[in-house]
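Translate structure to sequence.
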């Protein structure tokens, strides 16, 4: 169920993105005007040069053609840059609007922190291949060992897991932020693994290199780093 707060956040984001898109269109128009002004100035200079040339030593046709070709090349490059800028802005806007649908959802992104609340914490791991044994060593903020989870065999890819908040003695530990490290093996050989932290998306921040998600204590995370949406 989508909350009123989520709808408000999404609406505000859409409004902001539409304003950015309008700004990009204005910038593109300004760029086109600049190109047109450059062409006009060049042609005026060329005509003036031809009118005041030495009749006994007129301009070479090849020279005129070369200058015109250079102008055409510069104009083409400017127009291409304007087109690419407009396309980039459109892609960023589209990506940000799509990312807005993740507001309020939990995601797994690269990280090694656990947020323990009400006796429950969620983490994840991305395995390069299947593993016969996966262990998760959990430590507190000071680096002291809390417990080790024996997750057993796991398939390749993104896998989620949970911790009930008990230490190695079976005693519940205080709520808060903990760290963890993943070890995976297959037949005695290490398996490459990437630790994944869980967080809830509470906002989207557009940027020149793409949209980023505001994932609580995990901070700003590029959309491209989202491994799984829960």
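Result:
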């Amino acid at each position: 169920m989508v909350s009123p707060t989520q709808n408000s956040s999404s609406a505000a984001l859409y409004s902001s993105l539409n304003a950015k898109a309008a700004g990009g269109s204005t910038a593109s128009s300004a760029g086109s005007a600049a190109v047109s002004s450059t062409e006009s100035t060049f042609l005026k200079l060329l005509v003036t040069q031809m009118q005041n040339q030495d009749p006994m030593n007129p301009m070479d046709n090849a020279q005129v053609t070369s200058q015109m070709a250079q102008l055409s090349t510069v104009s083409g490059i400017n127009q291409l840059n304007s087109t690419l800028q407009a396309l980039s802005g459109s892609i960023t806007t589209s990506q940000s609007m799509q990312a807005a649908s993740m507001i309020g959802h939990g995601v797994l992104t690269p990280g090694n922190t656990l947020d323990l609340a009400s006796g429950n914490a969620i983490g994840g791991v991305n395995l390069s291949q299947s593993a016969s044994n996966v262990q998760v060593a959990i430590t507190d903020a000071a680096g002291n060992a809390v417990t080790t989870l024996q997750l057993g065999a796991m398939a390749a890819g993104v896998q989620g897991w949970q911790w009930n908040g008990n230490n190695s003695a079976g005693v519940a530990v205080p709520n808060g932020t903990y760290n963890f490290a993943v070890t995976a093996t297959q037949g005695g050989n290490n398996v490459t693994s990437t630790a994944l932290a869980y967080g809830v998306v509470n906002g989207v921040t557009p940027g020149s290199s793409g949209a980023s998600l505001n994932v609580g204590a995990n901070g700003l995370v590029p959309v491209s780093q989202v491994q799984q949406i829960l």
